[in-house]
Amino acid sequence: MLGKILKQFASPSALARAGVLSMNRRNRDFIMKYNLRRYYPMVDDKLRTKTLAEQFGVPVAPLIGAIRCQYEVKQFENMIRNRSGGFVIKPGHGSGGRGILVIRRHSGNSFEKNDGTLLDRVQIHRVITDILSGLYSLGGQVDYALLEECIDFSDVFRNYSYQGIPDVRVIVFRGYPVMAMIRLATKQSDGRANLHQGAVGIGLSLRNGVPRMAVQFNQPVSRHPDTGVPLRDLRVPFWKEHLELAARCADMIQLGYFGADIVLDRKRGPLLLELNARPGLAIQIANHAGLAARLERIEQLDPASHPTPEERVAFAREQFA
Question: Which pTM value belongs to this model?
Answer without folding.
Answer: 0.91
